[in-house]
Description:
This protein is of the alpha/beta class.
Amino acid sequence: RRRKNRGSLRQGRPAPPEPQRRAAAVLCFTRLHTAAYPGPYLPPSRVQRTTLFLALPRLVVDQDPDREICYDSSPPPVCSSPSFSALRDKGRNPQGMEGGGGIMASAATGAMSSLLAKLAELLGEDCYQNQMQRGTRREVAFLRDELSSMNALLERLADAGAAAPLDPQTREWRDQVREMSYDVEDCVDEYMGQLRRRSGGGGGGVVGLVLGYVGRVREMVSRRGIAEQIQELRARVVEAGHRRKRYKIDAAASPSGAGVVPVDRRLPALYAELGGLVGVHGPRDELVRLLDDGEERIKVVSVVGAGGLGKTTLANQVYRNIGDRFDCKSFVSLSQNPDIGMIFRTMLSQVKKDEPELTGSGDMEQLINELRDFLQDKRYLIVIDDVWSTQAWKIIKCAFGENTCGSRIIVTTRIGTVAKSCSSPDSDLVYELKALSEDYSKMLFFRRIFGSEDKCPHQLKEVSVEIVKKCGGLPLAIITMASLLTTKSDTREEWMKVCGSIGFGLEKNSDVEEMNMILSLSYNDLPHHLRTCLLYMSMFPEDYVIKRDYLVRRWIAEGFIKVFGGRTLEEEGECYFNELINRSLIQAVDFQYDGRVYACRVHDLVLDLIVSKAVEDNFVTIVTDKRQVLRPQGKVHRLSSDCTNAENMLTCSKAVAHVRSLNMFRYSERMPPLLNFRSLRVLDLDGNEDLESCYLKDIGKLFQLRYLRIRASNNITLPEQIGELQLLVILNLLNCYDISELPSSIAKLRNLKWLLAHRVKLPNGVCNMQALESVSLVVVDYTTPVTALQELGSLTKLRSLGLDWRISDAHKDKMTYADNLVSSLGKLGTSNLRSLTLISPWSLDFLLDSWCPPPHHLQELTIKGWCLRKIPVWMASLANLTYLDIEVEVAQETVQVLADFPVLQFLKSYSNAAGPQERCLIVDNNGFPCLKKLNFVHWTNLMFLEGAMPMLEALEFQIIVHEVKTACGFGSPPDLGIRHLSALRNLAVNIYCECARVEEVEALEAAIQVAVSMLPNSPTPTLHRFREPEMLADDAEQ
């Protein structure tokens, strides 16, 4: 070693003997080797020795052998380039999470899209360029170019596979390339993580120096390992490219000119006899009434419904029933890629059946003109079956000119938006075909197998009913299951196997394949990103009710959403969700006040289809306690576990290193530790009553984690290491009711957008979390630092906030807290705040007039727990408010203020009346112009004048019977004006019976029934009696 400056370092002491210096060097080497290669100590290899000695610092050994080794006091070199701060910021913005983010993953291309974005980032950002070696840059550039070409081919193969099955050789190449994309991305993620971590120093002092040098050693070792991985992956990419050329894979993605014309699977529906159909009479007669109404203008009625629901059968029955009433008629069926010319020729041949020699054979324009000329003065009936796009309809409708002969057109489609675009615009004639009722479903099922339900063997009745329920009223599914069961023996065990296989994609025969082909038409018509989102829903168990916002956040975390047109990721995700409902692939089960779908489920037969496709593509792996376990083909990428079975858990445990998404519906002690899931991006621990805090101890080491949701009923705590999850975007603890405080390290999560919990204390240092967009529900009490409230106002991206205010009036610093809250709310209100929830058992009257300027962007407001004396002035100015849930002392003036909100759609208001003089409140005409749902829970009566609440669809209020006659000043029974609510669909009335006579209560109920019967939608009212035992007998005196 060089001796320069060694004297000064030893402060003038003599140099130690050579043996001591050698011993110290060996000791230093051993410690560095142990730090760089954790685990049992083994003698270092030649490569390790070379790498470690290159990193050894200059050291000085004291003469005292017991003294610690002293390192050179000069700090390790740290790059001073400004690109390092940018590099650290890169780590806080995971791919696809920002407004311009692209799709990170898809079922068609694996991780290609995400991988290509990361390779482009490595090559395009100076902060990475400055650290990459020249050879590495060349390798990254090669991977980007080669994989980009393969990505385009994978997309073409996905389209080709939707039109016709790929040959086995092409499928094998496709699967290998998709798997390779995941492996390359894992390597790139590790490399980018190293570059980010390299930007940090080792700290100060001797410890900092040691850590710095150890980090450099580890970095050199891991860099060498990654370089070797890149070389291996490059070789795999090159070989995949050679196989692509050798086996002519590109040819498989090109549409072939000639091919066998497939049999139209709708033909059986066209020839079905009425006697063999079930439940068709009601829909047929209703559709006939829509068509045969005496209107002379041409009318277009759309029939919309899921595949296999019987749209073609229904249209054909109507066609047969009323076809003879028209001068001419035609029934044509389209396809996803229709030959419009052939469609027009078929129409001409059918409407001109008595003049075949006149049938046209010219170009499109000639065919359209010939049809228009022929139909101009005819009363015609046209059925256009299975329309898939508005573009096809726009061309076809050119053949139908306007006439006043009473002509009718029926269009069937699976897509809601297509149905609306086809129907007559002035009437919006869209007939939504419903599923069969349970009685009709059983009738069809038993008729197909046994002839009637009476002939069903007793041991098969229970399982038969269960199978019918799983078919969900879908005639195609019922007929398919019945046909399948005719091939099985009449034993309960055999039928139970079939029942258990529904939703797991396991039972196969020709009838099931036929049904899947029909259902697959809707799947194949989806664009790539929607296919991915639909396949992802195979991770949820059958009959699982999936909330929209929960599902959209999962899609965001997985990287399935690409933003267009300035929308946010959540808005774009909701568009995806609505499109799947629009295409009848998922079923809406609950709606919000504004008509938006709140939750959905997947039909069991659609689930069966997407499970089989997800497993075939190795997109999702499902492990359950049932006899059937879906084993993966190769590596596991997304794992859905609903199992405690030891054998199945062992199968699951063997292949978790590459899992990117884990959905655990039941916790098991046999579940592999989280440390085994090194590539995890999404972790959803759902319904885990036995989940233990110790299972989460290593969660801070899941550096790629973007989504964390925990649903546990027992007492668990989050580890402090959660602050290490720098890519975490969504933290959902809403169902962890025992978590009242978050780790202090939560403030380190600079990329966190959603912080959702059930009453946790507002974390200190929240100002560091500038990406936050949604926070709920956080507690502000006397232990909350005032600075935390002040910091809250700096979160300018916050769109949704929920606060539980627990500062009592008696608290000495109450006004300090209140002033800071008002100040922060004022700042948020002028930024992006759209939704605010305030819950408090203590007075919130300080908010009455102090919020300035008002939060004009606010759309949803909830104030609960404390009854306000009046509507605040600032609240009355909220022109964008659509949702209001408030406790307020109600008076006629209050009703008038509420009625003036221009776009309010939902109102829930409750408290006692302001005084005895306010026992009947009147809603006058033009009040509440946009209100759709009203829940008015007050000890007062409510009356509606003509023209009030023109859009109200749902109403719940209460009537105090012994006061309503006097208070409202009308006769007996009183007229409450319910008959004026022309849009009403749902009515619930709580009738307070105390001190009222029985005949008065009965007369009031009868009057409500009469008023409701006069409404256009004929709602069925729900009437609840309260304090019924306190009613007066008929002969009692008031």
